[in-house]
């Protein structure tokens, strides 16, 4: 069991929050990834969704992601105050009270789910509700402080946006969005464990049982390498299976080779500055990997549509 810290923030404090503080509660960087992966899921889905409904779907998914971020910051206000990376967030700084953040997050969550359900379809609305619940309750409130597998299991929440978007476009599910889900799900551990390797002091100070803190950096490096191998194999598999085309296949092979190279480099370099640099390099490349891997899909879909029109 992880010992909890007792940093408290009174809900009665009147905040001096500005617009930028509320935007910070939404975790804009995380939201941008949510919007991007959801947009890819929406674009490559078969059929035609009215542009207004398509925009509504993406906005609702974005707002749902922001709601998750706000509720995450509300619950983690004590550990955020202890970590260098998060100490400047609005609640630890005293710009927004915990009760305001909770109310903001709950309002956004209800609005995004009900709007998506009523205006688009309830399968998408239910999946969005499950995504928010999983991130806030299962990951934030349960897994993150209690197990070193927090990122592994909790990564399911961050992997669901393209599934939600596909459901919004089609009213159903299919292998393609499940593949996208698996790619993000398997990408999450090596991405965040690379960050945890050079931020382990932060997590230790806050008593967050990230893998480098609990199992040590060497065990983390091995897990990063193993997950990367599985990730690369799964990411390439849609090409031979016929779900995605040649452009995706070539891109996945080249990017996969890069991910493996960086993961092996992290595994090999164990001490000092070279180890830190290797972990930082993998963290940065993993962002590029996911972006380019997903970006090629709508481009490939557009090229196929254009060729179909021409021929």
Automatic annotation (TrEMBL):
Membrane topology note: Multi-pass membrane protein
Primary localisation category: membrane
The protein's role, per its UniProt record: Converts heme B (protoheme IX) to heme O by substitution of the vinyl group on carbon 2 of heme B porphyrin ring with a hydroxyethyl farnesyl side group.
Protein name from the UniProt record: Protoheme IX farnesyltransferase
NAD listed as a keyword: no
Listed transmembrane segments: 30-49, 55-75, 96-113, 119-139, 151-172, 178-198, 219-239, 245-267, 287-310
Class of the enzyme per the UniProt entry, highest EC level: transferase
PANTHER family per the UniProt record, alphabetical: 4-HYDROXYBENZOATE SOLANESYLTRANSFERASE, PROTOHEME IX FARNESYLTRANSFERASE, MITOCHONDRIAL
Keyword terms, alphabetized: Cell membrane, Heme biosynthesis, Membrane, Transferase, Transmembrane, Transmembrane helix
Record field: catalytic activity: heme b + (2E,6E)-farnesyl diphosphate + H2O = Fe(II)-heme o + diphosphate
Coiled coil: none
Organism of derivation: Afipia carboxydohydrogena (Pseudomonas carboxydohydrogena)
Similarity section: Belongs to the UbiA prenyltransferase family. Protoheme IX farnesyltransferase subfamily.
HAMAP family xrefs: CyoE_CtaB
Pfam families according to UniProt: UbiA (PF01040)
Presence of the UniProt keyword Transmembrane in the record: yes
